[in-house]
Amino acid sequence: MLESLLFYAFALVLLVAALCVVTMRNPVHSALFLVLAFFTASAIWLLLRAEFLALTLMVIYVGAVMVLFLFVVMMLDINFERMREGFWKNLPLALVIGAIMMLEMGAMLWQRVWGTSPRVIGPGYSNTKELGRVLYTDYAYAFEVAAVILLVAIVAAIALTLRRRKDSRYQDPSVQVRAHPAGRVRLVSMPAEKD
After folding, report:
1. What is the DSSP letter of 178?
2. Cα(42)–Cα(49) distance, rounded to whole angstroms?
3. Those residues with Cβ within 8 angstroms of residue 154's Cβ, 6 or more apart along the chain or in another chain
4. What is the pLDDT of residues 29-61, one digit of tens each?
5. Phi (first) and psi of residue 131, to 5 degrees
6. So where are the chain's domains?
């Protein structure tokens, strides 16, 4: 009973936070509500005994991605009023996509409530072990393709941001190796000054 109450409480907070992410005018507030949504989704996963996914969501999304997103939003000076100009033009397409997603979620709930019964889990079951087994056996090829795509994205991001500045000074090692002391030091004889 307590578990069901906690589930519905976290679900309500998650829905309100997700609605605030979309409707807030300030992007920093939207990002903070997204952090709240991630926290409550992680709590729901803990209630569903998916501890590994809950901790992964907390560490990766809340700990790394959202901090980076907050820094980018706070450092960039983006004109958000100009970005919102096409809102009403895109609203019909957004409503159609939202309706399709609601139908898919309704079908999932329908199958869960009136469909097949869930599998009985034994006492020694580990969802982390099962997730690793499925990921590295059934979806090994997709996992490797995703890893290669991420590697290409990292290399592309470095290549796009790494450019040689013309105003910075740098040393050429081949010129340094060919240097001779005679070309480096010049002795000048000057007469001594008398007071």
Report:
1. T
2. 11
3. none
4. 888 898 899 999 999 999 988 888 898 888 888
5. -65, -45
6. 1-81, 128-161
CA angle 186, 192, 194 (to 5 degrees): 160
Per-residue confidence (pLDDT) for residue 80, from 0 to 100:
65
**3-class DSSP state for residue 104?**
helix
Provide the 10 A C-beta neighbour count for residue 163: 7
Per run of 10 residues, the mean pLDDT along the chain (length 195 residues) is: 89 94 84 90 89 87 79 69 73 91 88 74 82 89 92 85 70 80 77 78
Q: How far apart are CA 191 and CA 194, in angstroms?
A: 9
d(CA 177, CA 83): 55
CATH architecture for residues 1-81: Up-down Bundle (1.20)
Counting every residue written for the chain, the total comes to 195
Task: Report the alpha-carbon distance of residue 12 to residue 103 in Å, rounded.
Answer: 20
